[in-house]
């Protein structure tokens, strides 16, 4: 057994939704953390980037060499990577290759254990692509010699989570909702706060190594009841929810794409999950890592407060590569040839810099644009129809 106090814990996906919240929790507990991400710029932008116990490392789970370097010298690793995003249409293939690379890198580095956050897989049901892929990833990770702890969550609710943002946008905008029949299936959501406590607590309990655990909140309810609970906590009238057999996950994902900031490619696997009943069966983790499990209404109430106060630590949009807008890049493409014509303008304003900067940093978001704002909205709608992000880029604060 090695001296764990001097060896870091590797957190893959440190710039993602869960990883971005787990890292500061581990640092608060006095642990050395090696935060891994594909972009050093994204890692450097995190509030914890300069913590004395943090080590930032650039690596990609699809790059075996960089992943091996990231694992080397660590005693444990969190695997929080999932490729269900618009940049990977065949997310299962990418997921499985990444898991295989991680299993090999962990074995080569001699890790004592891995901790994987997967999906709750119901017994005896036909699984959605999303759940089947999460299960397969767990199996691949466990195929290596390193003991793997698998925490299986049904639905994670938190400020900025994809599941909650889809629900919030749909219910805020649609007094009448047409949904798949799966809206009557049961689900047992868990607060992101409780998820982080379970993840962090696994490092303190050697008995969880090599085990599978279901992690859920205290209540199991239908998606329909969950939606109505949100509406009540948000101060909305009860929503009319019509479940129909002809609304497929594909059609449902297009609806989500048009109304929420979440891309159809991400929404479709989540919509497919409505067809499964996902409730806790194994509750052993509650005895090993006891904590105050937040019920549905308390969770929603807490999320709404943080959302309205614009205190969102991480968002579903944090994951994935950074793709800069084309308008921030000057000049023609290399293949275009010819001359590049540039122009510059200068305006002198008789005001302190701080007064000038304040209205600039409010641009976009809820402020919009100070000229021809309707044209920017029109452009955003056209972009959204073409499959782009539109004008809703997941900005979580009005000024910062």
Would you mind describing this structure in some detail?
The protein is an alpha/beta fold and 400 residues long. The protein contains 14 helices and 13 strands. The strands form four sheets. It has a seven-stranded parallel β-sheet, sandwiched between helices. Strand 1 (9-11), helix 1 and strand 2 (33-37) form a beta-alpha-beta unit. Helix 1 crosses helix 7, helix 8 packs across helix 12 and helix 9 (249-259) packs across helix 10 (264-272). The longest helix has 19 residues, at 91-109. It is globular, with a radius of gyration of 22 Å. The model is unreliable at 323-332 (pLDDT under 50).
Query: What number is the mean pLDDT?
Result: 84
Count of DSSP E strands? 13
What is the overall silhouette? globular
Largest sheet: 7 strands, parallel
Instruction: Determine the fraction of residues in helical runs and give it as a percent range.
Output: 25-40%
Which structural class should the secondary elements be placed in? alpha/beta
Order of helices and strands: EHEHEHEHEHEEHEEEHEEHEHHHHHH
Roughly how many Å is the radius of gyration? Answer: 22 Å
Strand order of the largest sheet: 3-2-1-4-5-6-11
Number of helical segments with 4 or more residues: 14
Span of the ends, CA to CA: 46 Å
% residues in beta strands: 5-15%
The low-pLDDT segments are 323-332
Secondary structure elements and their pairing?
Layout: E1 9-11, H1 19-28, E2 33-37, H2 40-44, E3 54-58, H3 64-71, E4 76-79, H4 91-109, E5 113-119, H5 129-142, E6 148-153, E7 156-157, H6 162-173, E8 176-180, E9 186-187, E10 190-191, H7 192-201, E11 212-215, E12 221-222, H8 223-233, E13 240-244, H9 249-259, H10 264-272, H11 285-288, H12 296-308, H13 353-361, H14 373-385
Parallel strand pairs: 1-2, 1-4, 2-3, 4-5, 5-6, 6-11, 7-10, 8-13
Antiparallel strand pairs: 9-12
């Amino acid at each position: 057994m090695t001296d764990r106090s001097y060896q870091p814990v590797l957190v893959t996906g440190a710039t993602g939704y869960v990883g971005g919240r787990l890292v500061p929790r581990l640092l608060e507990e006095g642990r050395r953390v090696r935060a891994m991400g594909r972009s050093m710029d994204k890692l450097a932008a995190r509030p914890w980037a300069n913590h004395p116990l943090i080590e930032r490392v650039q690596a990609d789970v699809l790059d075996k060499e960089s992943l091996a370097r990231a694992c080397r010298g660590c005693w444990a690793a969190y695997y929080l990577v999932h490729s269900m995003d618009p940049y990977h249409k065949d997310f299962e293939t990418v997921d499985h290759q990444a898991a295989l690379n991680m299993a090999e890198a962990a074995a080569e580095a001699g890790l004592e254990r891995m901790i994987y956050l997967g999906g709750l897989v119901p017994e005896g049901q036909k699984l959605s692509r999303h759940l089947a892929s999460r299960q397969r990833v767990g199996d691949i990770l466990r195929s290596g010699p390193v003991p793997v702890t698998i925490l299986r969550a049904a639905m994670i609710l938190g400020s900025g989570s994809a599941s909650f943002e889809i629900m919030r946008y749909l219910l805020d905008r649609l007094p009448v909702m047409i949904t798949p029949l799966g809206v009557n299936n049961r689900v047992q959501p868990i607060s992101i706060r409780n998820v982080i406590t379970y993840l962090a607590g696994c490092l303190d309990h050697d008995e969880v190594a090599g085990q599978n655990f279901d992690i859920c909140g205290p209540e199991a309810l239908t998606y329909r009841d969950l939606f109505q609970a949100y509406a009540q906590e948000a101060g909305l009238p009860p929503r009319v929810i019509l479940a129909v057999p002809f609304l497929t996950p594909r059609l449902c994902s297009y609806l989500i794409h048009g109304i929420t900031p979440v891309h159809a490619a991400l929404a479709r696997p989540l919509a497919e999950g409505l067809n499964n009943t996902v409730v806790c069966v194994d509750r052993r983790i509650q005895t090993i890592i006891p904590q105050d499990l937040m019920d549905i209404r308390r969770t929603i109430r807490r999320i709404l407060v943080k959302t309205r106060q614009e205190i969102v630590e991480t968002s579903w949009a944090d994951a994935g590569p950074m793709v800069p807008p084309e308008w921030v890049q000057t000049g023609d493409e290399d293949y275009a040839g010819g001359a590049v014509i540039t122009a510059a303008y200068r305006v002198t304003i008789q005001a302190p810099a701080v007064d000038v900067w304040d209205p600039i940093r409010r641009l976009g978001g809820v402020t919009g644009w100070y000229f021809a704002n309707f044209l920017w909205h029109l452009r955003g709608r056209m972009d959204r129809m073409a499959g782009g992000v539109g004008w809703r880029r997941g900005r979580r604060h009005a000024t910062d």
